[in-house]
Amino acid sequence: MTAIHRRIVALAGGVGGAKLAHGLAQILPPEDLTVIVNTGDDFEHLGLYICPDLDTVCYTLAGLANPETGWGRVDETWNTIANVEKLGGPGWFRLGDQDFATHLERTRRLKEGQSLSQITEDFCKAWGVKHAVLPMSDSPMRTMVDTDEGELAFQEYFVHRRCEPKVKGFRFDGVEAAEPAVGVKEALETADAVVICPSNPWVSVDPILKVVKEIKKPVVAVSPIIGGKTVKGPAAKMYAELGIEPSALAVANHYRNILTGFVLDNADSSMERGVQELNIKTMVTDTLMNHLTVRAQLAQDVLHFIGSL
Question: How confident is the model over 171-200, as a mean pLDDT?
Answer without folding.
Answer: 96
